[in-house]
Amino acid sequence: MNQDNHLEFSCCFEGSPLWNQPQEHITAMFLDTLDALEEPILIVDKDTRVVYANSSYLRTFSDNLIAAGIDPAGITDYKLTDLKEQRDVLPILDVLKKQRPKLKYYSLCGDAMTSFSDIIPLKIDGELAGAMIINRDTAQIAQMSHEMNRYRSLAEELRRELNAKSQLPMPFRSIIGSSSSLLSVLYTAAQVAVRNAAVCLTGESGTGKEVLAKAIHYSSGYSEGPLIKVNCAAIPETLLESELFGYEKGAFTGAKSTGNPGKFELANNGTLFLDEIGEMPMSMQVKLLRALQEWEITRVGGTKTIKLNFRLITATNRDLEAMIEEGTFREDLFYRISVIPLNLPPLRERRGDISALANHFLSQLDERYGGNRSFSSEVIELLNNYAWPGNIRELKNCVERMAVLSSGDIITAESIPPQIASARSRRSRKVIENYRLQDIMEKTERDTIQAVLSLTRGNKSRAIDILGISKRNFYMKLDKYHLR
Question: What is the Cα–Cα distance from 95 to 123, expressed in whole angstroms?
Answer without folding.
Answer: 12
